[in-house]
Amino acid sequence: MTLLKQIPKVDKFIKNKIFENYSSKLITKITKEKINKLREDILSNKINKIEEEKLTNNIIKEYKNIIKPSLQKVINATGIIVHTNLGRSLITKKSFDKVKDIVSSYNNLEYDLKEGKRGERYSHIVKTLQNLTGCEDALVVNNNASAVFLILNTFAKNKEVIVSRGELVEIGGSFRVPEVMSQSGAILKEIGTTNKTHKKDYENAINENTSILMKVHKSNYSIEGFTSEVELEDIIKIAKEKSVIDYYDMGSGHIIDLPYNLDKKEPSILKIMQYNPSLISFSGDKLLGSVQAGVILGKKELIDQIKKNQLLRMLRVDKITLSLLQEHLNSYLKGQLEDIPTLQMLYTTIETLEQRAKYIKQNLENICNCEIIETSSLIGGGTTPNRKIPTIALSIEYKDFKPNKIEELLRKNNIIARIENEKVLLDFRSIKDSEVDEIIAIIKKVFK
Q: Which of 48, 131, 239, 249 sits in a 20 to 30 Å window from 63, CA-based?
């Protein structure tokens, strides 16, 4: 009982000068919790003395843990450029600086400067997309899943949407096309088989309740062997003949030709637009290399109908997204592709990657064992499924540490590596040039 009387009172304890630069509200909350725990430990005979200095240090430590942002910068050494778990496409500081004045000030997000009246937030992006893709009109929502849902809800509520069985995809987070269709109010009509779908399947399935012929990008898988699918160009022709809407969910859309023949099975947005589709949608933060967004391109009369859907207000994007997306699309228009990190990484030569690997290896010779390896990596983010690109990696070995232990030590210092063939690899396909010296410093700190 004597020890209980020694427990400091909260109101006096928090007046300690060491806390004067901290939030008194949060310090008070933590102190109450720590003192309650102290009382419990005394009653259960876990402690036999009170150390106020230790209590103070624990309170400050807890305070710092609480206010430390959980969202942190990491170095992506996995080789996966569009890494969904690591934020997908990067944004350059140059692009961010260009829009900083706009987003940190009042702006004309929904104000027409020419007419002096209320404007439309989507108008800022339409002109850019028209010049870039040749579309009639455009709309931007918060991601491509939203775009899919909004289109189906607008045009196919209680109506049929025809989709090939081979395209009923499920992507990350259990996002399934059949379930999204159900939630949107659309009625799914499956055609063909898992591996084969023909033009006649679409033609025979159309009836008076058909609204959309939908084609879905196979984001994270491919069907090989005895297969056939109907090309988008043919689906568009059938839709026009039958007076229904054609819609292509591209998933990951890209503007320019990709290296390593990656776009052999994935035509660019510009190629698709040559077919004069009714509607297409794609992600902003995948191969386009911009921010998270769902971009819808298509016929003006259809875009106008989507804008009237009350759900649009729930799915719209803010000034930051619009500003950055417009900045990146302007980079495409001006041919300044160096401002798109995703493309830069894709096009970086093996020779350049090898130079970076050699530089790190030379600086770590007295720290750990390193070996330069020629290997391959995936682009990621549901793009170009099963298509690998060549890369250079550096294996890291230290004493008798197992790969899992090395990977964990690097991860706890915000370097995200990968394990391949029982070796920890730093893959330079996704490592920025500006991160090379940082990697050296971190590894020297980890493996002292």
A: 48
